[in-house]
Description:
The chain is an alpha/beta fold.
Amino acid sequence: MGKTTLARELKSDEQESLYLDMENPNDQNKLQDAFNYLTLHENSRIIIDEIQLMPSLFAVLRPLIDAKRTAGRFILLSSASPLLVKGVSESLAGRISYTELTPIGITELKEPLDYRINWFRGGFPEALLADDDNDAIEWLNDFIRSYVERDLALLFGVALSSVTLRNFWSMLAHSNGNLLNAEVFARSLGVSATTVMKYLDFLEGSYMVRRLQPWFVNAKNRLIKSPKTFVRDTGILHRLLNIPSLDALFGHPGAGGSWEGYVVEQIFQAKPDHLDLFFYRIQAGAECDLLLVQGITPIACIEIKLSNAPVVSRGFISCVQDLAPKYSFIITPQSDTYTGSNNVTIINLSDFIRTRLSLL
């Protein structure tokens, strides 16, 4: 279920719902005099879809909200991050609450779906619930093409080169989970590093890419300070890498990075609000794939392994010794939960999210 379907299914005994889609010219015309039109429906719940296409509405909504403070009176839907939607922070500060509707994750799966299907096909319902992998692949290919050629430019109202964007997205996929080096991407694409960062901002702002920042507070060693990048939906990742099946994925050199990205995304979706996520890497090479932090205090060091019989690495133990967190874990696909060497807990992803994450 997408954000639009979910919003339109909201029911209230006290309010009627009015749905307006800013991709629909008729609805846009209704809002040419937005203040008066919306005032006529002051007793309705008003759902405005793809509001980033009409940013002038934010200034109109502010006095309407102030005149009648009713929670949920306006539901604003967007496919773009509020940080990149002009007008949200300036016009509606203190008047708006944000909810990110993520793709389907591991904790929402029901038989016959399992984490392997979710990992390979990603979390978009049309791909995840497809009858077979071929149908999922066809939908994902169409999604990527339409997103590159039309949707992203429409979201942000800017001119983008679809060829450069597609090539950049593919390059990000091939370096999934690696450190960002804008200069290398720029030379390969024949554009400036500034253009690379602009395109990255758009992909991140449309929830397609995640930047995982490094942790370097109170550190004793010389650290890496460049972020790592991940294609957030692994179904899209695998299409950009042209991986045709789950069997092929296990034999692909990008399988480890794909699994790491899947784990990172699932933990981001499920983590409690008081935790922030980083990675930790010293210039000598030792790395903690994921660091869970509260304030400035490291809570848990996590190493992510595709193997169900992982070996605790010296580099990971070195990071644990540097950071002195309360917990240390190795997260696997399907292993049992047990304590390994150096008091590191080995646990599978599903059990970690269901039984440990909320307790940290």
